[in-house]
TrEMBL record:
The lineage of its organism: Bacteria, Bacillati, Bacillota, Clostridia, Candidatus Avichristensenella. GO terms for biological process: cellular response to iron ion. This is ABC transporter substrate-binding protein. Pfam families: Peripla_BP_2 (PF01497). Residues 44-294 form the Fe/B12 periplasmic-binding domain. It comes from Candidatus Avichristensenella intestinipullorum. Residues 1-23 form the signal peptide.
């Protein structure tokens, strides 16, 4: 009997010890499905994607950032003197020297098929991937993941609440959706998108239909295809171009396009339209104003 009791006590002790160890360093999955072991505390963070950095800053955790990618510079809440890396080719040795608790990155860093930060994982540094999400639901899940691993799930939920509330407030049900063309890159290299993208979802919930909804993903398109589809509203997020709205209105051969003829061409904030995080609400609101003008 004593041996049985002793065995049970030993088993209970081992179970408690195992549970305690798991609580200290929980193993979860990152947004790409990779198993990661979270450190007990996260105080030093490297963020290599502006969409991720924006979430961290808006959670009020910008002071945890010890390095970011070049496109994250200037985001409010990011320390001005923070070390900066190239998003495509970050220096693994320099990152290791920073002794980070956590490194967050998107698929941009893996775009050439290789992983420049593989040795960080081998050294026990927690590297979590948050691939660029293509749906609004996935964006909400990304936010919650980032908030959870940084110890502020309530803050992440608050960011999500604003987006979901805006979606419900701006949602339009209509039997006659307006034809929409959204231009990401201007002439001569037109770039847009089809289904399977959060921007396509945004057009649909505002009562529009993407003229390239019969295609999937991010697309190189022709002027002829746009003209033939005759969009009633045109959006452009090419803020880097000189007078992007005026350029569209003055394009040769576009004068009879309904949106051009009626002056229904609108500039949308580039960061809000391109970075998959809660800030897409800003682009959504700008787009809703354009719909209301028509």
């Amino acid at each position: 009997m004593k041996k049985t009791v002793t065995a049970w006590i030993l088993a209970l002790v081992l179970l408690c010890v195992g549970a305690f160890a798991l609580a200290e360093e929980p193993v979860v999955q990152d947004r790409a499905g990779n198993p990661i072991t979270l450190p007990e505390t996260v105080e030093r963070v490297v963020s290599l994607a502006p969409s991720i950095t924006q979430v961290i800053a808006d959670l009020g955790l910008g002071d945890t950032l010890v390095a970011v990618d070049q496109y994250s510079q200037g985001i409010e809440g990011v320390p001005e003197d923070v070390l900066t890396f190239d998003i495509m080719t970050p220096d693994a040795e320099q990152i290791i020297a920073l002794d980070p608790d956590l490194v967050l990155l998107s698929g941009m860093t893996l775009s050439d098929g290789s992983d420049p930060l593989a040795q960080l994982t081998e050294l026990g540094i927690c590297v979590a991937y948050v691939p660029s999400s293509e749906s609004i639901d996935a964006i909400l899940e990304d936010n919650l993941f980032i908030g959870e691993i940084l110890g502020n799930p309530e803050g992440a939920q608050a960011l999500n609440d604003r987006l979901t509330e805006a979606i419900e407030a701006l949602r339009v049900e209509t039997e006659t959706p307006r034809r929409v063309y959204f231009e990401i890159s201007p002439a001569p290299y037109l770039y847009s998108f089809g289904t399977g993208t959060f921007l396509n979802e945004m057009i649909a919930l505002l009562g529009g239909v993407n003229i390239f909804a019969d295609q999937t993903g991010w697309l190189s398109v022709s002027e002829e295809a746009v003209i033939a589809a005759d969009p009633e509203i045109i959006f452009t997020s090419a803020e880097w171009a000189e007078d992007p709205v005026g350029e569209i209105l003055a394009r040769d051969g576009w004068a009879d396009v309904t949106a051009v003829r009626e002056g229904a061409v609108y500039l949308i904030d580039e960061d809000a339209a391109s970075q998959p995080n809660h800030r897409i609400v800003l682009a959504l609101e700008e787009m809703a104003e354009a719909f209301a003008d028509q």
